[in-house]
Amino acid sequence: QVQLVESGGGLVHPGGSPRLSCAASGNSFSLYVMAWYRQPPGRQRELVAAAMDDGRTQYADFVKGRFAISRDNAKNTVHLQMNSLSPEDTAVYYCNVVESQSYLSYWGQGTQVTVSS
Questions:
Q1: Which residue among 12, 27, 75, 97 is least enclosed by CB atoms within 10 Å?
Q2: How far, rounded to the nearest angstrom, does the alpha carbon of residue 69 sit from its chain's CA centroid?
């Protein structure tokens, strides 16, 4: 079982650059994928960015060049640096991890990011 705790959301002005963090904890695990998803109001959850354990990263087209995902395997943390935010980035942002051996997927509780002036 893996527990996830997210932080860093809140109210952000347009053009702002918040950083989301997610810390994973549990007993004897390794994580294949650490990722961020988001769910805008009235829409389905969508992938924002993912970081694999081999160093590869993947980004949704709508964030390329604006967001950067990074993971610290020693600390089991993943961060999402978000830049140049617009109101369209308003959403609940969820941390998601996939365990290496079991391929079980775990979700954080979500953190609200609201972009508004």
A1: 27
A2: 8
Do 97 and 106 meet the contact criterion of CB atoms below 8 Å apart? yes
Dist. CA 100–CA 111, nearest whole Å: 25
Cβ contacts of 29 within 8 Å, gap of 6 or more: 2, 76, 99, 100, 101
Sign of the CA dihedral running 104, 112, 50, 77: negative
Return the amino acid letter for 18.
P
E runs forming strands in 8-90: 10-12, 19-26, 31-39, 46-52, 57-59, 67-72, 77-82
Residues 6+ apart with CB under 8 A from 53: 30, 31, 32, 33, 73, 100
